[in-house]
Here is the input.
Amino acid sequence: MMTAPRHDWTLAEVQALFALPFIDLLLHAQAVHRTHHPANTVQMSTLLSIKTGACPEDCAYCPQSVHYDTGVGAEPLLELEQVRAAARRAQEAGATRFCMGAAYRAPRARDLARICAMVREVRALGLESCATLGMLTPAQALQLKAAGLDYYNHNLDTSAQFYGAIIGTRSYQQRLDTLAAVRAAGLKVCCGGILGMGESPRDRAELLRTLANLPQHPESVPVNQLVRVPGTPLQDAPPLDPFEFVRTIAVARVLMPRAQVRLSAGRESMSDELQALCFLAGANSIFYGERLLTTGNPDVAHDRQLLARLGLAPEPPAAPEARRAAVADATG
Ligand code: SAM
Ligand code: DTB
Ligand code: SF4
Here is the structure.
């Protein structure tokens, strides 16, 4: 049954979904999924780190923070040609979205102009474009929109209550302000979080409630499992019960029925069976390609085989007309 998406979830309602028997929750989530999305289809996004390391922020999970010694070196913003080549390779491998990540607190004007040129290149190939560059002003969000950017990724990562235990250099409200600027510019929102950072079940419920109660649901919701990188304060975080990860995917699917829910970082340490449960719970998107930003991701060959074994089809690339329209749009 198609019901209008809600934006008024209470904590108790979200917790009640988490408390359902596992099979009941998965059945419910898969039913919601099939009402709003084509069955057995997975969207594939490829990431590229366009500016790596030396980030001034202190996010406790992140290998790119200048505050921690993780062995990730600092690299300047890539050249346009390097980005174009990586986007072509991603497209040839079957990705339909290309996501450019930069280790910034916020982009500087000179860098943003160069990133806008990268966005135009990605779109000219007929790929969807996504960028994650830290905080944006409303004017910067408009500039990216004018360059043809489709999605902006900016994660809330956890609950407002737990945020301060993970990040000290910015506030939850600053995150929400950037999300509002992105929305106001007409960009699609990609916003999710990380599980397994030592947060409580209530924090996970609050994160999903906050996402679902935004004025408009994010079009894309990445659910990351913490990649425990040596040298970060969270290197020894206790592993999360895998079934709790699956439950979180399922509740995200129920709360945000039309969103693409992405099984994101952490797949390298997940079994094929666990990933299959995530798809059953309503995940319909993955990061595809051997690298995330600085850490690993499953081999392309393994992912293709996994999807084939499960009878899952990659989301088809945009039809030629849509691609031509995207190019016309991006070039003015
Ligand atoms: N600097 C920008 C920002 O933080 O918004 C963009 C890049 S940042 C690396 C993008 C996202 O990657 C973070 O919001 C976080 O959710 C995710 N991330 C970073 N390190 C991670 C880790 N070790 N495990 C899982 N997700 C991680
Ligand atoms: C998101 O939610 N996960 C991606 C993407 N958005 C930018 C990043 C995961 C990063 C994992 C750690 C790394 O590779 O550096
Ligand atoms: Fe910087 Fe983003 Fe990493 Fe935080 S998550 S340290 S803002 S690159």
